[in-house]
Amino acid sequence: MSAPPSSAASGPPHPAFQEPGGVADEERYALAMESINFGAYDWDIGRDTVYYSPVLRVMLGLSASELATPDDWLDHIHPDDLPLYRRALVQHLKGETPRFECEIRYMTGAGTWRWARQHGIARRDKDGRAVRLIGAAGDVTEEQIVAANVDIV
Hints:
- By secondary structure, the protein is an alpha+beta fold.
- About 30% of the residues lie in helices and about 25% in strands.
- The protein has helices at about 25-35, 55-60, 70-75, 80-95, 140-150; strands at about 40-45, 50, 100-105, 115-125, 130-140.
- It has a five-stranded antiparallel sheet, sandwiched between helices.
- It is globular and about 50 Å long.
């Protein structure tokens, strides 16, 4: 799993993250992602290739052959949610939103519909064009079920 994108403006790491013999940055990132039940992805837009972390595939119930390309993910999104997903993605890639965020239904490898939440941030070239989208996604079906059953007081 690749480390999260860094920014030169972010400064040095907090002293708590510099303990001798401590958890390496890559492991720390993996544990943080696991703690929120999300996995990482990294889409190289120009090459139209994507890295989906093994953790992400397991959480979404999709094998490596079912989730290997950017189009594979689109093929699993519920047809009614695809326009919303595409709109949010295009808005972010055009620089109209600071982050890509979307909740959609997707079909698992077992053929069941579940809910996913996806976040991402575009890396841009010197001309401001999005060249990569790096982020995280995970299954949020249980959250959707709870939210649907909450009585508004």
